[in-house]
Amino acid sequence: MSESMVLRPAVIVDDRDEYITYAGRHWKQAESASALKQTLTVLDSEDLSAAAANQQTALRNCLNVSAVQGASDVTLYGVLEGELEMRYSPGDNGTLSSALVVPPENAGASLAGHELLRLNASSRDSLHTGGLAVCPKKGKLNVDYLTYTPTSDTPINGRDIIVDDRYEGVRYAGSWEKRSARLVMGTGYDGTMTSTNRKGDAMRFEFFGSSVAVYGILNQVEGELVVDFAVDGRMGDRVVLFDGSQEVGNASRWTFNKPLWEVEEMAPGHHALYVELRSVSGSQVLNLDSIIYTSSVDSISQTLPGSTDPWARPPSSSFESTASSKAATMGTIVGVLLGLLFGCLFCAVLYRRCSSFPVQTPPPPAPSSLSALMANGNGDASANRYSGTRGMRSGLEMAEVDRYRHGLPEYDPEAGIANPPPPYRPKEEEEEEEEVGQVQGRR
């Protein structure tokens, strides 16, 4: 796929998913740190008999996926170990086609997350009548996962949806950088990642679902990397990805498909995911690769009201994409200046009318507490954490305001009135008489 193209959200099927079946007795299960859910299903062509290479018997040793019926842009991902030649059959006509995958130059002996087979939209008609079968002819087939782009007729309720880091519905705030994820040891989803090493940079994504997970790419280098995660502005987790004590020495050591944080169960419906870089040092960088969530709607045509793109999510007024246009920025500045001008004129007129009347200053209100601010959001300060979260925690709870959703600033005691002045009280009669006597004595 071209670097300029961005994959749309797709249904993702893991190699151990019930929607994939494996024919024959030579398939083996394996583990890999850089595989999705750390699992692979493997078939080496050397384990097959000579008869298995024959077209009539090849289908007896294939992986079969029936869930792709009615879909388009089907892609098979896996770990590439040398040259791989495959046979595949889209649909149920039994005709086998061939595909050859050659490792890129300067690649390592094993490439994680590599695209092994892609069937584009031109194959959609054949996929309507059947599933997909794939088997190796030469080399080792290491199956990691499969994705397919659903159409409006494809059921997606309860299915896992993968979203690329560059998809337009993923909003970034700060100094994020879009980078290539085609590395010596493997490839990120769609060959991309979005990265930052600046504290406070954040990401936001809205979805309809019942679970969510954030995936990234980790580099085993020196430094600390701490990230905050939350859903719907409620309590989340502060995850220590690296605490600075990790073994380093090989800057080319990468881990792909790393689940940085996940919520395994939540109420089905509309949710907002938030990610913020909390602490970073040394050579560490936060690399976001993809988001996977379980859909709670039946079709991609079911979206937020007013959305023109079935997958698009409207940006928050206080959490805009870093790609906002200069025209929008200038319009905001002009609007603010005009507002200030009219405000000053209004205050001047009001001051002239009220200057002849005595004004009593009311006591200033007490500063708002953090719990009161949270009560204005999507939950209170005592809200329980979502169940099923996983990851190394620092022991610090992230009880912060959902400032990106409601425009509230981060709570800072020093920014408010730490010691408010006492309310105004009239002087007592004795104090007034004493002052009058002092004035008369001076006369």
Automatic annotation (TrEMBL):
<keyword id="KW-1133">Transmembrane helix</keyword>
<feature type="region of interest" description="Disordered">
    <location>
        <begin position="403"/>
        <end position="443"/>
    </location>
</feature>
<feature type="transmembrane region" description="Helical">
    <location>
        <begin position="327"/>
        <end position="351"/>
    </location>
</feature>
<keyword id="KW-0472">Membrane</keyword>
<keyword id="KW-0812">Transmembrane</keyword>
<protein>
    <submittedName>
        <fullName>Uncharacterized protein</fullName>
    </submittedName>
</protein>
